[in-house]
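One thing: can you check what follows?
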Amino acid sequence: MKVLLLHAFPFDERMWEGYEGVAPRLYGRGESIDGWAQQLAAEHDGPLAVVGASMGGYCAQRLLAHADVRALVLVGARAEPDPPERLPGRDETIALLWEEGVEALWGRQRPALFPEDADEGAVARAREIALEQSAEELATAVAAMRDRPDSTGLVRETEAKVLVARGEHDPFLSGDEAEALAASARNGRSHTFSGSGHLPSFERPEEFRLVVEEFLAGV
């Protein structure tokens, strides 16, 4: 079974260096996250285990509609679309990218992505990857996240094993939300990475690897 590793925003496939699996680039695939998922399904035949972090988690959920997904790991990703109060923030991010560039975006996002005491090496690597992205591609990705469809039904109806993971200090997905999403799946469970922020695969790579390997065992 092939393992797909779908990256978070504003990073790229290099955030999965050191992990086993295929890590495709999500940028440059158009303006629709569902369209991204359709492309990935066409590129990767057979049963899949999909690990998606944040933006990658949104795409991973859409793959449930287009591919033979046997296991799904969602990291810091909810299934609902953006609520109305979130939309102005998305538009502000797009404007920031066009007007001030990727470095300004990183300055705004870094406190939300990593806690103050996060490993400096992990943060430096994340910054390096983020700053090498195109402002145009990132702006398109923000619009795709803003306009993404509701995936709650896909998660609820799938026969795949589902793991909803989050960092303890993730400001975007609460523990209650993660547990509720896991409970909505037919075969779901949740996991919290103690001390981590939004991206435990960056901050807790060994623990993250062990948790995912244990979850995928026997699929």
In short: The chain has ten helices and five strands.
